Amino acid sequence: EVQLVESGGGLVQAGGSLRLSCAASGFTFDDYAIGWFRQAPGKERKGVSCFSSSDNSTYYADSVKGRFTISSDNAKNTVYLHMNSLKPEDTAVYYCAARQGKVGYLLLRLWVLSDLIYEFDYWGQGTQVTVSS
Fold this sequence. Notes:
11 strands; mainly beta; about 5% helix; four-stranded antiparallel sheet; about 50% strand; globular; single chain; 1 helix
């Protein structure tokens, strides 16, 4: 059984940084994609960033481009979302999601731009990020 567990959220002042972790267990896929999504109160879940293990491609939403970075540690089965220069509008519950298969940049771009949460089969429980002004 695949399980994803996010951690690293918290309260931070505007301009600060956080690193979210998405630890995967039961993950035996050679090729997979990881997506980070966020959901602010009263709003729909939105795509933040996606990563493909098959070619290490990534895509970021315009709202986080240049501030957020995805990295992975295969030895730890963990994907990270490094968030810098945080803004109050980044406040949300952040979710990581995973799906099996080989995908490239264009699909990652589509999934983030179109908030295609249904493309992902496995989800974590979410971690709250609150940025104070």
